[in-house]
């Protein structure tokens, strides 16, 4: 039986707190090294693929003692505690809201990432001292003293290999989804922006659009409906949508047909498409299609509009039915709409299948994680 021992984080490696170079000197910012901030991290996502800002070579020279090697676990310790962490995939830097642990030779960085995810992330929330400008905060000293149970290095590597296999598959499927989404978006642009739709070479154009196509007001093409509050709904498998996406799941559907969801408050540009029963909150609009094969086309039309430029709110970005009623949309002929709908439907089906695979893998990984980290499930 492999023996697991308890160590303080500072005994597992070097704890490094990041820095933010003076923003007044833009020479510190460039393209050379990722500069990871909490806002760059995605909850539940292992790596940070791109960052909002990068260190320059000048910043590297100034802060090189804080350079993090690949496979260094990083945990947010200022603001939004207990939610975000990541694993570095290249040499990079972080800001002061992040504490990273460069593992010593007795420990594996990838294993520590999963160990921290299993226990440290939630525990960090409990250590909040709240002394940094009123924000949630855990000092480097307190973070360093958190205790973690770890096995010998060979077992660490085996466990990390098992769990990373799940995350590698998930990452691969996400890349496939991104490629499919790009392909679908390019198809829309090719047909309806560049007007290279099937038969375009023989098409006649009138007033800048193909003959047989029209320009119509949005509200003549779809019915715009308000979402409803969801506080009294029981848990279930029906997604509840807000302007940020799926908020939770409930047991009752507000609408069960193909629709395009339009944020009424908040993230106005986050247009969403759905083709299954759903509930949407009162800060959202859902649309009822008045034309056949129109939903997928409408999704791409609205996705290409900067909805925030029509903001009617002050403190909170807002959209109104009055504003939407003035939107005018190019409407292709029925044949072109049907062809586009069929092609996009095939892509959406592939995306749905991949998303289901991701959900299954995520569930399996999350069930396996505590069992492996408890030491009760022995690995060979």
How would you characterize the overall build of this protein?
The chain is of the alpha+beta class and 380 residues long. The protein has 9 helices and 20 strands. It has helices at 9-12, 57-63, 109-126, 140-144, 153-192, 218-221, 295-303, 321-325, 334-374; strands at residues 5-8, 13-17, 29-36, 53-55, 73-76, 85-87, 92-94, 98-103, 147-150, 205-206, 209-210, 214-217, 222-226, 238-242, 245-250, 259-263, 272-274, 279-280, 284-289, 328-331. The strands form 7 sheets. It has a 4-stranded antiparallel sheet. The protein has a 4-stranded antiparallel sheet with strand order 13-19-16-17. Strands 4-3-7 form a 3-stranded mixed sheet. A hairpin with an 8-residue loop joins strand 5 and strand 6.
Q: Top keywords for this entry?
A:
380 residues, alpha+beta, Adenine-n6-DNA-methyltransferase TaqI, Chain A, domain 2, 4-stranded antiparallel β-sheet, 9 helices
């Amino acid at each position: 039986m492999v023996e697991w021992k308890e160590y303080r984080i500072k005994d597992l490696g070097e704890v490094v707190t990041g820095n933010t170079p003076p923003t007044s000197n833009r020479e510190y910012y460039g393209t050379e090294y990722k500069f990871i901030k909490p806002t760059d991290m995605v909850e539940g996502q292992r790596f940070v693929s791109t960052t909002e800002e990068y260190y320059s070579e000048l910043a590297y020279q100034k802060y090189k003692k804080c350079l993090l090697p690949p496979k260094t676990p990083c945990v947010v310790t200022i603001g939004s505690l207990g939610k975000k962490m990541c694993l570095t995939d290249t040499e990079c830097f972080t800001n002061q809201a992040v504490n990273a642990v460069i593992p010593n030779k007795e420990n594996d960085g990838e294993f520590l990432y999963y160990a921290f995810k299993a226990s440290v992330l939630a525990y960090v929330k409990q250590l909040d001292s709240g002394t940094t400008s009123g924000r949630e905060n855990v000092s480097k000293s307190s973070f360093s003293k958190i205790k973690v149970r770890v096995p010998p290095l060979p077992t660490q590597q085996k466990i990390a290999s098992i769990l990373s296999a799940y995350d590698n598959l998930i990452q691969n499927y996400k890349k496939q989804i991104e490629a499919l989404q790009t392909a679908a978006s390019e198809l829309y642009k090719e047909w309806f922006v560049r007007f290279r739709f099937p038969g375009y070479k023989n098409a006649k154009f009138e007033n800048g659009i193909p003959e047989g196509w029209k320009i119509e007001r949005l509200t003549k093409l779809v019915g715009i409906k308000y979402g409803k509050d969801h506080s009294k709904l029981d848990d279930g498998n029906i997604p509840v949508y807000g302007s940020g996406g799926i908020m939770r799941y409930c047991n009752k559907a507000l609408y069960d047909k193909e629709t395009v969801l339009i944020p009424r408050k908040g993230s106005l540009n986050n247009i969403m498409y759905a083709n299954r029963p759903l509930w949407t909150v009162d800060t959202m609009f859902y649309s009822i299609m008045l034309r056949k094969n129109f939903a997928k086309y409408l999704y791409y039309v609205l996705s290409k509009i900067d909805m925030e430029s029509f903001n009617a709110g002050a403190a909170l970005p807002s959209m109104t039915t009055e504003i939407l009623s003035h939107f005018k949309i190019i409407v292709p002929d029925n044949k072109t709409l049907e062809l586009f709908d069929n092609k996009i439907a095939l892509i959406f089906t592939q995306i749905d299948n991949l998303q289901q695979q991701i959900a299954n893998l995520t569930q399996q990984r999350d069930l396996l994680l505590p069992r492996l980290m408890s030491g009760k499930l022995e690995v060979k």
